[in-house]
Write a structure and sequence with these properties.
Number of helices of chain A: 13
Radius of gyration of chain A: 21 Å
Oligomer: homotetramer
Strand order of the largest sheet of chain A: 13-12-11-10-6-9-8-7-14
Strand content of chain A: 15-25%
Order of helices and strands of chain A: EHEHHEHEHEHEHHHHEEEEEEEHHHE
Largest interface: A-B, 42 and 42 residues
Chain lengths: 377, 377, 377, 377
């Protein structure tokens, strides 16, 4: 009997980048096999893609509802166990809801939903189903991100008093300054993208990273967003002041008009005993600062790392692993959870991260619109 | 006849770091000769230091008032031409005032004064005297900082829409967490340090850098400062939202509790056509970003640099110059101004920079104390 | 009908790192499906590993000879098409020989064989079989390595006149200085490891990189190897002078006693018009130098890269891909060759690279033993 | 009574870069005052330059011989104490010889002489005079270079077994490929430049660094130089194998055709316990490697540094000092020696370094010309 977990995929067909990312992540640790899917709402593309990547076409379904119906009709030992939801954002909620209610485990892309309210409904549903639910804040899977979390947990930085997370991209810059382009892109269309562009897409990653690493919760935010043009409805840049507690403060800086920046997620965290600098584009170097000792550069795969970090490294030091490996680590954690093996809560982001992320987005927009005032999360 | 400018120094004796910095800066381009001073209020230390560094002891004065009186009694062609004011902050104002009124050129350490009101009085005095007045925002003297300014001026970045300046240090971290130390250090004593510690000392550098580089003016600020302990009266960390105009925004991030950071002044500026990344601790590399071309790394001394930048480089590419050279570039600019030679306004920060800096500090504290609201500059 | 290529694997079972690397590489672009294997000479481990990773146990064979026999008995449209040879070095030759002679395509780990003579025999065999044969010099698959190759080919560097390739590791340092360890490790046992440790294992990568990138051939070598202890039979460090032609020179520097280095493969190449700096541990940044323009930093995924480079990048700029992706690019090239699609010769190293590599190793050892004299390749 | 040392300068007038470097270095620590000079063989330029930089024109001499004669005629307490020799290379020997014989202390630019034989004569002369003699291998003055030396001395790296020093520049690249330029530049004219261009100018720095840092002596060399064109008489590139003892090996890599490189002096040293990476263009970061701990990054000015390193740092951590400061540290050491104060032998390179450097150059050329064979030093 095969030990691989039966994985279903909704969305992510053809050249979809997110499809590539999840598919490879599922392969990397030999834990999953794709047994069914709705890769694409257009039947011909759906079935052709299945053939192309060699998935059994008998379990390629016409649409999501058929997927659910047919899979539920299969005996449990054949039925798909976990479903990756890679559809456009507005479909995350209805699909995740139905999957949870039907007893599937779910790996859901972020943002979890399009509103905080929907997120709370999902959370309540999961409360009942008790299935495994992961939200793919991909960057939490990097070995050195995990290492930061464990070091903070173990008190290496002392009491954290300052958190500064940056997420700077420049991709929307040429678009935003061209009237025709900015009024036609779905990312800036509230109907399709929800209430936020920049904060919803990347600010939320930065926020999640802050909480993932520190184990602390943001209690309130004050956001200053930028829309740049009057005819543009969604933020493309923002600086958000964070309060964890009265004297523990932070800032999230997110931008899609940081011209020339690629995917500049950067972490700076400081505590009474030490600090961290880490950059997503150079993910295998973690800079550990202290009051009076030389800066140290932690690298993956060395024995001095925590188990959580080492568990996410496959090769010896000096063999760079990247973003696919980071996502694969999340899939590995989910596999352990599905198999009811022991795992570290740091192995994958959960429903709770997704729910808090939605609240963060809504409160940032509310803070900005109210004139840059504090809003509680 | 010697062509060197006759320089007087107030303060900066003994092991004073600021004294070393200014003295070396004055030597570097062969423009100045130190002919008189009050290095120290204690006579013995004053005179001994003069002997140690070989300054004519006939023009070592007992105190500032004697300095003025005796120098004014000398014929103009022997009299000190320019005075470097390196005394504790609260003395900047009365000394600079008297020097300006007596017709001396002045090189004054920052912060210019202890209040915005004093700064305005100085500005008015200078209006009458028409002497040369420089405020030593040292970091503006780096060749690559100058290069950024010229490239922005020449439109290389297009229209600037985002400015992010960081100034992170960690030195106060061990002090602030020790009750005895934090209540005894002069930097945290409002009587001695004025209304701000972190913003006044380093936030103001970051703010000045933003205006120096972009040629734009900050119109309002919203500050969130951190004092960490109830018994601590002055900020030791702060994030300040900047508004240049409605859609041109920025942020200054300053901290003295960024544990393990040394002197982390970092510049990120983005415009419609490109962006800059620059770090003071690695001052000879300027990273120039654009929408779709490879990032470029500008280095000092190459022909592709602007005259303003090249003027601040003495050796061929690959021979790193540092902080002393940066200050020396400011002294060089002042020398040109004193000699009424042509110079680029970017060669040294002026009274206006000092005045605006004081306003910035006061409005940041006011914004924070009023509950993080916007304050106009 | 499935379009995936039927892949067989010899070796690489259990925790084998090379097994993980090849398996993941085969998955990444959806081109291969593992249909048969001899993962391990011990039957129980062989079959258990097959079950663990969900490979059909009917095609898990007792040993290599059975593998060949049974697969050859299958109809061609079911038979394994390509075999990855991941066994200990001394088995590469006999297995590759039999596979070639039986008409299989082969993906063979490096070093190709244990002697140059064996390599020549393989080459002759391939000449007859006309099958596809790749030697996995993994690092040639990185997008920025491919970009260097294409830029050199297109004359961006002008005529190449200097090549400096480093491969520094430190892993053997604690072993070599411990008599018991150094006399027991298989890597330093000529019976098991052949005539060279350091040059055979990593020097050969550096040499291959030099030829892969420049398109030039090394004509002679002068090697100075280090054995450190009299009781140690194999080199653990070496500097090798390269001659491409009379005035085109180079150096390969390889070490396993570069204490603390992880996997420091570094490329420096210079020509009349420009130069390259690249480091394997930071594989996504290519530094492009020129006489008088700012250094440029090329990153993967941008439109300014060559097709060969872009073909090896799956996600947008800023999403770091790593060593698995590099190997996957090689597998992708092999897939194209097997399907008789068009491909760039830079997509995978061939028999010729393997053969030249063996010659290089032998001539380096010969040069050293003869007292550091030039040996022709 | 002034405590500054009376400094004379031969050469280095006008825009001479070496003049700027030495003059600033002499100012930086308040130890020297320039009291006499022959800045230029052309009288008008000589005297004008003296006026420009405010040196007493009474002690500006017509030529070197007059300098000696007139200064020797002065009473010892007025006479110049130390002379910086900044003339073209071929004048170093006769001038240094006469200065030594006349009892002056000397600070001499490298290369010490134009032949090893001359160097030996100087060494013998110094043996008699017992004056202070420094050769300005400038880069040894960097705080982190000094830190490496002290750490090696204190056994932090264990027993050194591998030394790799690079010195790559690209400046001669556009010249060497242009027949007219390469046949006219003095650097490639054996009459003016001696027997070597690249090794004599920069290879010797790399070699000196190797010995300075490790405290070991190179016993033999095998050099492979490059001249690139038949009509070019002097090397512009070379790789030199070093032997310290049977199993302690190294390599010096020097080039002036490393197109686009600026001043790439780089140090890699490895021992049984650890290793160093250091780069002159980023002189304030020292990377300290070890077998199994995170890499450490040492920075100047911290308490964890050695006294020798701290003595060469004037400002707190994070305030970058550069090449002028490095040279100033050498001048500081010489001042201590002249005043017969205690000093660390690492504070300045001596006659011995200069002599060994000349031997190195000659043996490298000899090794190359003899067909790349070993030559003893």
């Amino acid at each position: 009997m095969a030990r691989k977990i039966r994985l279903g995929i909704i969305g992510g067909g053809g050249d979809s980048l997110i499809g590539v990312l999840h598919r490879i992540a599922s392969f990397i640790n030999d834990n999953y096999t794709i047994v069914g899917a709705v890769f694409n709402p257009i039947w011909e593309e759906n079935i052709n893609f299945a053939k192309e990547i060699d998935v059994d076409t008998n379990r390629i379904y016409l649409d999501f509802d058929t997927f659910i119906k047919e899979e539920m009709a299969l005996p449990k030992e054949e039925r798909i166990e976990v479903v990756s939801v890679l559809t456009p954002n507005f479909l995350h909620f209805p699909m995740a809801k139905k999957l949870i209610d039907s007893g599937f485990h779910v790996i859901c892309e972020k943002p979890l939903t399009t509103t905080f309210e929907e997120a709370l409904i999902l959370e309540a549903a999961l409360e009942k189903s008790k299935t495994v639910f992961a939200v793919t804040y991909t960057y939490t899977g990097y070995p050195m991100v995990r290492q930061m979390r464990e070091m903070i947990k173990n008190g290496v930085l002392g009491k954290i008093h300052k958190v500064d997370i940056q997420y700077y991209q420049g991709w929307i810059n040429p678009i935003i300054h061209d009237k025709e382009q900015r009024t036609n892109i779905w990312r800036l269309d509230p109907e399709k993208a929800g209430i936020s562009c920049c904060i919803g897409d990347i600010g939320t990653h930065a926020y999640n990273m802050a909480e993932y690493l520190t184990g602390m919760e943001v209690t309130s935010v004050l956001a200053d967003l930028n829309y740049l043009y009057e005819d543009n409805a969604l933020d493309i840049d923002g600086t958000i002041l964070l309060r964890f507690s009265e004297n523990v403060k932070g800032v999230v800086r997110a931008s899609q008009i940081a011209t020339g920046e690629e995917n500049g997620l950067q972490v700076k965290i400081y505590g009474t005993k030490g600090g961290f600098n880490w950059e997503q584009e150079n993910p295998n170097s973690l800079y550990v600062l202290s009051n009076d000792q030389p800066m140290q550069v932690y690298k993956p795969g060395h024995g001095y790392n925590s188990d959580l970090s080492l568990d996410g490294t496959k090769l010896p030091p000096g063999h760079p692993e990247g973003i696919f490996d980071s996502m694969a680590n999340i899939y590995l954690g989910v596999a352990k959870a599905i198999r009811q093996e022991n795992y570290n809560p740091g192995e994958f982001p959960t429903m709770r991260d997704g729910v808090r992320g939605m609240n963060f987005i809504e409160q940032c927009v509310a803070s900005h619109k109210a004139g840059n005032i504090w809003k509680d999360l």
